[in-house]
């Protein structure tokens, strides 16, 4: 990894990065292939991540977190994802999609009840927005929440919920006033053991296979009215605000995948010989190495810049949507480019499951899809530049 000359890391940042790197190398890397093969959730290593403070890095210590900044979160997540992106997305959802939204929009009572066990690593949090027929266009969701005295009754089906099969707490988005479309969406905090909440089928995925993903089915699920996050009708705003933070996490995840794939390709290009010399000496391979490295460093700058903008926004209240979108777009497409090139440089061995390169390639693809596809990121960026809504 290159050090950034324009923003030297503090000693605290370096210590956290090095701790995450050592943990990833010693605890995650040795079991990553095993969990990718089985598709089982890595309870043991995730629990250790919580004990290390990785599951609530930006959460204040009063709520069980580490009380560090956004760059610290990105640095740690990047290192975890070099070893295994599945562990990384579990960490990312906990930090960005779950804790961040409650910290920003929740009441004091909600923060203590729903953040503290998750940020401390004792429990797992999840975020549920997508539905079978509602992805990028969240305003078309069919799930409903109806007020009934001191309760809300939730009905509907959610899909592609990361950590869905095992999460203890959920941030869930449902329609309270369908006629208002996106202005009729509200956000709710739901405990995993609430009657009427059913975990659906576990999704058989191409990559990040150790991160459990499933449907959630709500069948007359009654939750206290005090579990409303923010005000009625603020759900869409909350969802989009949280996704801005989440996209920085996915950019860090993609950066970690790209770095792992690059390092494998760089080493192989220096060791594998053909026609009497290392394959890296041939221009066709050497130029790939040059392009891979350059894209990674550009992705790093965009990702770290977005992290710094988000940290500044805690004081100024400014938006960081465009910076987050640019970071996710470029880093995710870099992860795909670099992992594809890494497989090509390895030749037949890149296609073998004996090496982790094919796993990097499979894991990279999802970074272009979840938390807003590359097409959605381009919409966000272009509309911001053109002054369109």
**Major sheet summary line:** 4 strands, mixed
CATH architecture annotation name of the largest domain: Up-down Bundle
Tell me what portion of residues adopts beta-strand conformation: 15-25%
What is the number of independent domains? Answer: 3
CATH domain class name of the largest domain? Mainly Alpha
Number of strands: 10
What's the Cα radius of gyration?
21 Å
Task: Report what the structure shows.
The chain is of the alpha+beta class. It has 3 domains: 11-124, Orthogonal Bundle (Butyryl-Coa Dehydrogenase, subunit A, domain 1), CATH 1.10.540.10; 126-232, Beta Barrel (Butyryl-CoA Dehydrogenase, subunit A, domain 2), CATH 2.40.110.10; 236-386, Butyryl-CoA Dehydrogenase, subunit A, domain 3. The protein is built from 10 helices and 10 strands. It has helices at 11-38, 43-51, 70-83, 85-105, 108-119, 235-271, 283-316, 321-346, 357-365, 374-386, and strands spanning 125-128, 144-148, 151-162, 169-175, 185-191, 197-202, 213-224, 228-229, 273-274, 277-278. The strands form 3 sheets. Strands 1-4-5-8 form a 4-stranded mixed sheet. It has a 4-stranded antiparallel sheet with strand order 2-3-7-6, with helices on one face. Strands 9-10 form a two-stranded antiparallel ribbon. Helix 3 crosses helix 6 (235-271) and helix 7 (283-316) runs antiparallel to helix 8 (321-346). It is globular. The two termini are 38 Å apart. The model has no long low-confidence stretch (mean pLDDT 96).
């Amino acid at each position: 990894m290159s050090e950034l000359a324009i923003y030297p890391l503090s000693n605290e940042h370096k210590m956290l990065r090095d701790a995450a790197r050592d943990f990833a190398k010693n605890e995650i890397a040795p079991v990553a292939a095993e969990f990718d093969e089985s598709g089982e959730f890595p309870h043991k290593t995730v629990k250790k991540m919580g004990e290390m403070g990785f599951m609530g890095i930006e959460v204040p210590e009063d709520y069980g977190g580490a009380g560090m900044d956004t760059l610290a979160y990105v640095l740690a997540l990047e290192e975890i994802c070099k070893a295994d992106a599945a562990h990384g997305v579990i960490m990312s959802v906990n930090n960005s999609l779950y804790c961040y939204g409650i910290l920003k929009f929740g009441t004091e009572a909600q923060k203590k009840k729903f953040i503290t066990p998750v940020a401390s690593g004792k429990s797992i949090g999840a975020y549920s927005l997508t539905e079978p027929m509602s992805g990028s266009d969240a305003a078309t969701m069919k799930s409903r929440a109806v007020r009934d005295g001191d309760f809300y009754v939730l009905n509907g089906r959610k899909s592609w919920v990361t950590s869905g099969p095992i999460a203890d707490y959920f941030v869930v988005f449902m329609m309270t006033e369908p006629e208002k479309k996106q202005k009729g969406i509200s956000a709710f905090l739901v405990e995993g053991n609430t009657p009427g909440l059913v975990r659906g089928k576990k999704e058989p995925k191409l990559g990040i296979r150790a991160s459990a993903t499933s449907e959630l089915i709500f069948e007359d699920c009654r939750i206290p009215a005090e579990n409303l996050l923010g005000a009625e009708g603020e759900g869409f705003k909350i969802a989009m605000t949280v996704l801005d933070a989440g996209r920085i996490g996915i950019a860090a995840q993609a950066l970690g995948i790209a770095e792992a794939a690059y390092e494998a390709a760089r080493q192989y290009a220096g060791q594998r010989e053909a026609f009497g010399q290392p394959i890296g000496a041939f221009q066709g391979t050497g130029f790939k190495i040059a392009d891979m490295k350059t894209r990674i460093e550009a992705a790093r700058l965009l990702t770290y810049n977005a992290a710094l903008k988000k940290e500044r926004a805690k004081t100024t209240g400014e938006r960081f949507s465009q910076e987050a979108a640019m970071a996710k777009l470029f880093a995710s497409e870099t992860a795909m480019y670099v992992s594809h090139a890494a497989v090509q440089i390895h030749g037949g061995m890149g296609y073998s499951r004996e090496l982790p390169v094919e796993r990097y390639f499979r894991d990279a693809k999802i970074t272009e899809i979840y938390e807003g596809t590359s097409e959605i990121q381009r919409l966000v960026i272009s509309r911001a530049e053109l002054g369109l809504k």
